[in-house]
Amino acid sequence: MKKYQCIVCGFVYDEANGLPDEGIVAGTPWVDIPDDWECPECGISKSDFEMVEMVA
Amino acid sequence: MAMDDILILGSGLAGYTLAREIRAIDTEIPLHMITADAGDFYSKPMLSNGLQQGKDAEGLISASAALMAERNRLTIDTGCRVTGISDVQRKVITEKGDHEYGSLVLALGAHPIIPAMGGDAADQRSTINSLYDYAWFRQRLPAPPAHIAIIGPGLIGCEFANDLLIAGYQVTLIGPDPYPISTLLPEATGKALEQAMQKAGAQWRLQQTAAIMEQADKGYRLTLTDASTLSCDLVLSAVGLRPEIALAAAAGLKVARGVVTDRLLQSSGTAIYALGDCAEVAGHNLPYVMPIMHAARALAKTLTGQPAEVVYPAMPVVIKTPLHPVVVAPPGSGVAGDWHIEQHDKGTRCLFQAPEGGLLGFVISGGFMDEKQALTRCLPPVLAASVYT
């Protein structure tokens, strides 16, 4: 499981946890999140490819 | 220059987001940017949690100015200050000559307020509102456990305090407020944050301000309005931001708190628009990331020939204080309703409800963060779609 960080606001998407509040179940890989998904904290869209894999 | 050329002033999140949104619609329209800065793209919200992330100023840059120019097919003048705008002649005046435009976008941001203060070291206060400021702050920041005094216990002051505490610094927060972030939070939430940060070592000197800042043998000495003093190694001032309106005002554009625009983001000038922290859009000056995203998408459509009014949904603001996280969605100013406040061991849950019961705003903190999405869905939009569109 990987973590991705929004480079605009710092929000972290953790594949292990998913985002159950948004209907994204725990364990959902980043690639399976729809392209029209937006960062819940800053609103940037996934298709703008602003999430980067975290090293840690 | 052709009349469709778009000139963006400012290379912050607003300017670059607009450029990207325009390019998503139109790959040909000429785009030019002028910035007084170096033009590197960085994460602004991460300035206040860079220590936790192990990032210095360089580490927060995700793309250089040259890369941003290439990606967005724009030309950019960096290190170039604009000194005037002629609405009639459709040109800006810069230190390096005049520049004509078809449409002009002011994405100039805001600057920190620096209140008057006595003492021989008052000019040594640090402020942080840009990557430059952050680089300078990190350069001056001694190793932990140095003592950092933060003037201004608001949103930004508390975020920096939390970041410094986690990194092992001693932190004292000073300000006239009765409790932290008092302009946005109900007292119960502010107090919960105050206590959580105090447990982590924060010292609070509330209901007073720093009056004098003097050089001491080691570091600085602050004298507060109650005549008490404190010694510290560095002083960070975070008392608030003022939208950058001087250029617009000098050009004769209508300004209030920010550059006044309608819902098309158009100022009172002929082909001059404003976006981001410098703008006051239909009465709203919202210096946060999400409003920029919505406004930039609408403005990109308008500038490429399909006029689109900005629509702001409910946009809760996440306050990055992991010691006691907070999400705030303030009710609109002047709307009727009452706060219903719950205090629990794990955090606070405050709902602002209309007399007939509808949710108009909320503040949640601590262990209630997982309710953010559900509560947000119940809120009315900040700026609803106009009935005419």
Apparent shape of chain A: globular
Let me know the number of strands of chain B: 26
Poorly predicted regions of chain A are none
Instruction: Please state the average pLDDT score of chain B.
Output: 96
Task: Count the E strands of chain A.
Answer: 3
Strand order of the largest sheet of chain B: 5-2-1-9-20
Strand order of the largest sheet of chain A: 2-1-3
Class of secondary structure makeup of chain B: alpha/beta
* Average pLDDT, all residues of chain A: 83
| Rg calculated over all Cα atoms of chain B | 22 Å
The biggest beta sheet of chain A reads: 3 strands, antiparallel
End-to-end gap of chain A: 12 Å
Shape of chain B: globular
- Specify the helix fraction band of chain B: 10-25%
The portion of residues forming beta strands of chain B comes to 25-35%
Overall radius of gyration of chain A: 10 Å
The chain pair with the largest interface is: A-B, 13 and 20 residues
The share of residues in extended strands of chain A comes to: 15-25%
Largest sheet of chain B: 5 strands, parallel
Total count of helical runs of at least 4 residues of chain A: 0
Helix content of chain A: under 10%
Overview of the structural elements:
The complex is a heterodimer of chains A (56) and B (389). Chain A is mostly beta strands and 56 residues long. Chain A has no helices and 3 strands. A 3-stranded antiparallel beta sheet of chain A has the order 2-1-3, with no helix packed on it. Chain A is globular and about 25 Å long. The mean pLDDT of chain A is 83. With 389 residues, chain B is α/β, with parallel strands linked by helices. Chain B has 9 helices and 26 strands. Chain B has helices at residues 13-25, 57-60, 65-71, 131-140, 155-166, 187-199, 246-250, 289-303, 372-378, and strands at 6-9, 31-34, 41-42, 61-63, 75-77, 82-86, 91-94, 97-100, 103-106, 110-112, 147-151, 170-175, 203-206, 210-215, 220-224, 229-232, 234-237, 241-243, 259-261, 272-274, 279-281, 317-319, 326-329, 338-344, 347-353, 359-365. In chain B, strands 5-2-1-9-20 form a 5-stranded parallel beta sheet, with helices on one face. A 5-stranded antiparallel beta sheet of chain B has the order 22-23-26-25-24, sandwiched between helices. The mean pLDDT of chain B is 96. The interface between A and B is medium-sized, with 13 and 20 residues.
